[in-house]
Specification:
alpha+beta, 27% strand, Immunoglobulin-like, five-stranded mixed beta sheet
Length: 221
């Protein structure tokens, strides 16, 4: 880019460039971009600047503005995520920023490069554009309600599955099939038989002793 010259009357010229009607460039004073998306800024200029180079820079002062991308004529140029295209037929040039991030927020300038030999004393024509950024659209959250819509229908089959869980264990159908019942029977049956045999064994000698006690009574008579 042709070097810019700082004149003693530069503050006055810059002041006049901010007066409405004195600025040969027009465009939006502020734009809002979304993180992850693209944004285009259209800058309109006067017919006398068809052949001039146009550029897009970042900064609030034209002399300290950091050039990002620049083009001349109708050609298109690109610098990373930023591209610029001049359309002399419509007296506009368009700046496109792709894959926006929150760090892209700030003050930018649409500008036309003015050579030093021009009638404008080498002072570039420009206007400021304030770029605001907002977080990306929650596309994933919009997909979340889809499973939640089907979730109200899910509790019904889930309750049926819970109801079918006790069905495979038919405890009241057959008590004999229970292992606890079988163990209880095998433990109590021998105990019952032992008690029964003990009772019979105890009662058997009592009858015999009673007979032996009667025989001496007859013999005494």
């Amino acid at each position: 880019m042709i070097p810019r010259v700082i004149w003693l009357w530069l503050p006055s010229v810059l002041l006049l460039s901010q007066v409405p009607g004195c600025v040969p460039l027009h465009g939006p004073s502020s734009v809002t971009g979304t993180v992850g998306e693209s944004l285009s800024v259209t800058c309109q200029y006067e017919e006398g600047f068809k052949t001039n180079k146009k550029y897009w820079c970042r900064g609030s002062l034209v002399l300290l503005c950091e050039d990002i991308v620049m083009t001349g004529g109708s050609e298109e140029d690109r610098n990373g995520r930023v591209s610029i295209r001049d359309d002399p037929d419509n007296l506009i040039f368009t700046v496109t920023l792709e894959s926006l991030t929150m760090e892209d927020a700030g003050t930018y300038m649409c500008a036309v490069d003015i050579p030093l030999i021009d009638h404008s004393f080498g002072i570039d024509k420009f206007f400021k554009v304030e770029l605001f950024m907002v977080p990306g659209k929650p596309g994933s959250s919009t997909k979340i309600p889809e499973p939640t819509r089907s979730s109200p229908a899910d509790p019904q089959p889930s309750m049926t599955t819970n109801d079918t869980i006790p069905a495979p264990s038919p405890q009241p159908r057959s008590l004999l099939s229970s292992p606890y019942f079988c163990i209880l029977v095998f433990l109590e049956l021998p105990l019952f038989l032992c008690m029964l045999s003990a009772v019979l064994w105890v009662n058997r000698p009592q009858r015999c002793s009673g007979r032996q006690g009667i025989q001496p009574y007859h013999e005494n008579q």
